[in-house]
Write a structure and sequence with these properties.
By secondary structure, this protein is an alpha/beta fold. It is built from twelve helices and 13 strands. Strand 11 and strand 12 form a beta hairpin. It starts with 20 loop residues before the first strand and ends with a strand.
Length: 343
């Protein structure tokens, strides 16, 4: 795990630009039917994000409904066992619904309320975003439909039960790999059909602009809290941040408030599967040359991203055994690290 050299580069806090681009990535590539809805959402968010009342409502819900701030906990036994740096855990698992996902769904649900939408849709993989979306929809009295791959429904029965218990309609997706990517595609199709009364709550750092910006901003409460808590409890900023990278909402929420802190290293960790060179892994952001085809930008879910250039609209199913990442670790596999580089 190597660190990149510090060098001058773009101001990442200035991203995205007015067209939603993060450098050459991002943007908006969707059906014309959705352009007006995305423009409406972008205008509404830019108007509300600096509105004192909107921020007060968001902060109130985070404090009194979600239970923030989540604690920063010193893992003393783990620190002693590893014998190196002090390890602090940002306890997002203690939020209402059990994960960080609710930070974002609270914010987007408030936007839906301001826009007068009566129906919300969401995609989910492991089910945590689906549960968080169903929770805020039930709280606001909104109709809720959650799109979930058939394979994920089989693996995450408990979260499916929780969503149904909250009144959500869980829609099985049987196309493609029957997992998160396909669930997002089906949700986009539903949105095209029901755009007038429907708000799409996207949970990952994906989709057309302004969604990556929304998710980043609503999840940045994680990093803002962690930064303040580190200064108070440890007397200094952390030497390094480590976050798992799946859809990216947890990582971007932690990293973004530290972008100006040049001495704080940032590490994103993706599941290595059978190895980066095999093509059977979860290393979507891995850029090292390998025997696999070079990744090229593509556009299947409405924003520019990376894919296998041999078939850019085909997402190959990664190699994960029954039991998922925990089973891989039990078999001796280790996640492949990704250094977040500041260019």
């Amino acid at each position: 795990m190597t660190q990149s050299s510090e060098s001058s580069g773009p101001d990442y806090k200035a991203f995205p630009d007015q067209n939603g681009h993060f450098g050459r990535f991002g943007g908006r590539f969707v059906s014309e039917t959705l352009m007006a809805a995305l423009d409406e959402l972008d205008v509404m968010y830019r108007r509300l994000k600096d509105d004192p009342q909107f921020q007060a409502d968001f902060d109130y819900d985070l404090a009194h409904y979600v239970g923030r701030p989540s604690p920063l906990y010193l893992a003393e036994r783990w620190t002693k066992q590893l014998g190196g740096a002090r390890i602090w855990l940002k306890r997002e698992d203690l939020n209402h619904t059990g994960a960080h996902k609710v930070n974002n769904t609270i914010g987007q649900a408030l936007l839906a309320k301001h826009m007068g939408k009566k129906r919300v849709i969401a995609e989910t993989g492991a089910g945590q975003h689906g549960v968080a979306s169903a929770t805020v929809a039930a709280r606001l009295g909104l109709e809720c439909h959650v799109f979930m791959g058939e394979e994920d429904i089989r693996r995450q029965r408990l979260n499916v039960y929780r969503m149904k218990l909250l009144g959500a309609n869980v829609v099985p997706v049987t196309s493609g790999s029957r997992t998160l990517k396909d669930a997002m595609n089906e949700a986009m199709r539903d949105w095209v059909t029901n755009v007038d009364d429907t708000f799409y709550i996207i949970g990952t750092v994906a989709g057309p602009h302004p969604y990556p910006m929304l998710v980043r901003d609503f999840q940045s409460v994680i990093g803002r809290e962690a930064r303040a808590q580190s200064l108070k409890q440890a007397g200094k900023l952390p030497d390094a941040l480590v976050a798992c990278v799946g859809g990216g909402s947890n990582a971007i929420g932690l990293f973004h408030p530290f972008l100006d802190d040049r001495d704080v290293a940032m590490y994103g960790v993706e599941a290595g599967g059978d190895g980066i060179d095999t093509g059977r892994h979860r290393g979507a952001a891995e850029r090292r040359p390998s025997r696999c085809a070079a990744r090229q930008p593509h556009l299947p879910d409405g924003r520019r991203q990376r894919s296998d250039h041999r078939d850019p609209f085909r997402v190959r199913r990664p190699r994960l055994p029954r039991g998922g990442p925990r089973a891989l670790l039990a078999q001796g596999h280790r996640p492949g690290p990704l250094r977040v580089r500041r260019r």
